[in-house]
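Quick one:
INPUT:
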């Protein structure tokens, strides 16, 4: 804070100051009265017969003694009050510092030249500059593109208008831009200096959450549009298929072969549209024995256009399932594998590889491994990939909800998920689910 004159209880402008001077004056009058009275009694008892010269020196001595005693008393009293005031000031400053350091917002005080005079602990944590670096230096947290905005805010504050809860950007010591909520208020020092109190709060998580929700809303709208489009495509596709079949019945030779290929393509389109409509529906959750291999094959078929677009090579080895089933909701299982395979597709480059294989990891549990040779994940990001709205994909490429949803689905089905990844080498996702046994299921229902 700017330098201030210490507050003393002896300041005459305060009630405590006025009481101080009244007490000092009355006590001084009392001391002088007592000294003079005592001196008169001593003079009357011991020095009654002194001559004029001796009495003169006696009066001078009395005055000197009275003055010295009064001076010592006044000095002691004033020093005592000053020490008490300074102790009160120290406690008040410590209280103020404690409040300032405990503030969750980054508090920065600077003058009109942006020279910093106050910097709290939250500002250290947010911006990375310690107090020694910040005090007396010019404000270095404003990105160049925000300097004009800051000048406008300062002009408003000079006119006495506080700037409150504005979303803007600041920059930390490492040059990273931060989303912050800023309040800027005018602050007048004791010597009438003009200062500016800036309080900022980190809102990066809030902004990221808002962007993810907006992206999720866009994806939901796109999904509804895709379902509507698929519904409208059904009729013309059926009509095209019927006409092609009629033409093929009358065609011969190479024309019949070409029409057969065209019929297969239309049937593939019909199958894809049918799967799209199936996935767009929101059936109630209902668990029953489901084949993992059948579910995975269905999902792979659904994702075949994306696989072809990336020229991805997908190896599907589900022999270890040996017809085993899991007690699960089919819709949720499909969503789980779509999430994991879509992530693998996003990670690989053109002509990349994805391998899906199954094996028994332990008694009564089956494991599915989905491995890719894509870009991988940085080690520091791996512990966070299952957090909602955390994504390693570029902005606009993901919502950060996929793996969080996958983890939630597996928890609901008494399963588990773990992930291992190496940057530039690929990622392996392992999921485990309990194998369904009819007798075990019956025992569970009876229990």
């Amino acid at each position: 804070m700017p330098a201030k004159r210490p507050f003393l209880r002896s300041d005459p402008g305060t009630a405590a100051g006025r009481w101080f001077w009244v007490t000092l004056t009355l006590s001084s009058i009392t001391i002088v009265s007592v000294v003079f009275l005592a001196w008169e009694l001593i003079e009357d008892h011991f020095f009654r017969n002194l001559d004029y010269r001796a009495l003169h020196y006696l009066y001078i001595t009395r005055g000197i003694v009275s003055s010295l005693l009064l001076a010592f008393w006044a000095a002691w009293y004033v020093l005592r009050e000053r020490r008490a005031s300074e102790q009160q000031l120290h406690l008040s400053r410590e209280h103020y510092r404690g409040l300032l350091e405990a503030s969750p917002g980054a508090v920065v005080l600077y003058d009109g030249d942006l020279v910093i005079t106050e910097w709290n602990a939250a500002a250290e944590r947010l911006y990375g500059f310690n107090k020694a670096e910040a005090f007396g230096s010019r404000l270095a947290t404003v990105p160049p593109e925000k300097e004009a905005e800051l000048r406008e805010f300062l002009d408003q504050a000079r006119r006495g208008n506080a700037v409150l809860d504005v979303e803007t950007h600041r920059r930390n010591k490492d040059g990273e831009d931060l989303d912050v909520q800023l309040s800027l208020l005018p602050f007048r020092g004791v010597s009438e200096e003009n200062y500016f109190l800036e309080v900022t709060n980190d809102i990066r998580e809030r902004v990221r959450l808002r962007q993810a929700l907006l992206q999720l809303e866009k994806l939901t709208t796109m999904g509804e549009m895709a379902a509507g489009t698929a519904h409208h495509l059904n009729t013309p596709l059926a009509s095209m298929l019927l006409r092609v079949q009629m033409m093929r019945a009358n065609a011969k030779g190479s024309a019949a072969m070409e029409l057969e290929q065209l019929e297969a393509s239309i049937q593939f389109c019909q199958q894809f549209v049918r799967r799209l409509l199936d996935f767009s529906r929101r059936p109630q959750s209902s668990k029953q024995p489901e084949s993992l291999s059948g579910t995975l094959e269905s999902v792979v078929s659904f994702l075949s256009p994306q696989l072809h677009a990336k020229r991805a090579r997908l190896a599907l080895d589900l022999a270890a399932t040996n017809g085993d089933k899991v007690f699960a909701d089919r819709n949720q299982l499909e969503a789980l594998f779509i999430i994991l395979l879509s992530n693998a597709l996003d990670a690989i480059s053109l002509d990349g590889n994805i391998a899906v294989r199954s094996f028994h990891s332990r008694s009564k549990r089956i494991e599915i491994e989905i491995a890719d040779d894509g870009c991988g994940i940085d080690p520091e990001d791996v512990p966070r990939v299952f957090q909602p709205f955390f994504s390693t994909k570029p902005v606009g490429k993901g919502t950060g909800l996929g793996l969080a949803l996958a983890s939630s689905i597996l928890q609901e089905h008494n399963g588990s998920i773990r992930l291992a990844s190496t940057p530039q080498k690929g990622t392996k996702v392992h999921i485990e689910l309990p194998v369904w046994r009819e007798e075990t299921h019956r025992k569970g229902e009876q229990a």
